[in-house]
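Take a look at the protein record below and tell me what you see:
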Amino acid sequence: MDKLFQRKKNPEHLAKQLKEALENPNTPVKPDKSGKVVDIVTKRLNQIKLMLYGDGEHETNPQKCAQMSSLLIADNMIPRLVLNLEKLPFEARKHVAQIYNNLMRRDVCGFVEYVDRQPQIMSALVHGYENAEIALNCGTMLRESIRHEILARQILYSPDLWKFFDTYVHLPNFDVGSDAFATFKDLLTRHKPLVSAFFDSHFNQVFEKYNKLLSSENYVTRRQSLKLLGEILLDRSNFDIMMQYICKRENLKMMMNLLRDPSVNIQFEAFHVFKVFVANPKKPNEITQILLTNKDKLIAYLEKFQNEKEDEQFVEEKNLLIRTLSTLELRKEDDEGTTNDIRFPLSKLSWTVEGKAT
């Protein structure tokens, strides 16, 4: 029995058995000791998982873990498992995710660089959101991967990133859509210098797509996206990005629209972005003109805005905006020839943009 136990725990033996099971579709199942029929791939993956995590009775052996990782890399098992995840049984998928996350977290035998050299792995994990059966498994592996800047960079600078904006965070399956948004948030916040540089080089494309998220018919998507936008803009590492964002009239219009949203939660999140437009001491002329045009209505709105909240910082910020708007003026030269006639009617659902209702 001791020899049998040791044999099962031997990394070389397990790696060989897993490879054989994946390559031999004719013997996918067989009885275990209790007579229960089990999938061989699932069984081998579970044994590998226990070697990496321990089984509650036996501690993990670092040497065996390193050897196991080295063998999985040498046999190219990880790409094979990830790319064929949907073909594996339910339990096997969970084991794959747990094995992958363990190796990624500990970066055993240069696992992170190995995955970086295999771009099809990250791409397959992103595309996993298109299959509800494997989406959550892929999500956990993606978030573990993008803890490493080199892999986050790979996704940020690949066409796969735009699928989050356009498709994945909008998925009708609530669990999958929420998981995709969690990954999306990590991509845009975890590695601050990397993300700031990405925003700077892709500013127009990013925020054109981001404004579409803010216009989503899905309440959860709209609220989550708006809250995340506030976090991104108010992060010190994104100061230059914030200044670009708050100098564009389309973005101010978006926030003023969201201040009128029926949801008080969305109104509150919009306030935290809108306040930056008002507080900016270097407002461009077109932003100042829009605020000045709507000055009285904005002040009246803010004076009644969520007065039930007792948060001192919120109250202080609101009062600051009211004072700033009250003293807002255009320089004399700014008052000539302007066409930025954007109205903010609290009682209507239409805008007047340069003389045209929209």
In short: Strands lie at 29-31, 37-39, 352-353, 356-357. Residues 35 and 194 are 54 Å apart (CA to CA).
